Amino acid sequence: MDISGVMTMAQGTRGYWDPMYFYTGRLTEKSDVYSFGVVLLELLTRKKPFLYLSSNDESLVAHFVTLFEKGKLLEILDPQVMEGGKKVEEVATIAVACVKLRGDDRPTMRQVELTLKGAHESTEQSSDNVNPSTKGERNTKGSTRQYSMEHEFNLSAEYPR
Length: 161
Hints:
Elements: H1 19-24, H2 29-45, H3 60-70, H4 86-98, H5 109-128, E1 137-138, E2 144-145, H6 149-157
Antiparallel strand pairs: 1-2
Helix pairs in contact: 2-4, 4-5
């Protein structure tokens, strides 16, 4: 009853935290956008942001952004991810926008969602024009999958994380 305020502390894994938190001590909605961007980078590279350090002593985020700006993403992308073609470039662009240093420079999660949805839909439309014999089979829920789920897990397990 005599408590006048509650003090909380941010929790999470190092590497996913918004850098602005260290300056302001506050987490915002744009902090979530930053963390989501780091997750996208992790998916694109299959590297753990809290363990990664480049030869120039850059974090995963800094190294990815540097390579993106130089047009050399192939140096850091996971080999299996590179098969995604144009879609990978679109996701990389979204990820880089999400991990901007200043929160005001980042998109909202709604903007990220709509951009990802647009990238997905444009890919679906172009895959409808592909020869049916090269497309994956449609399952009962309408998604396209080239392999069974078990086969996809086995393929994913071949690449170290």
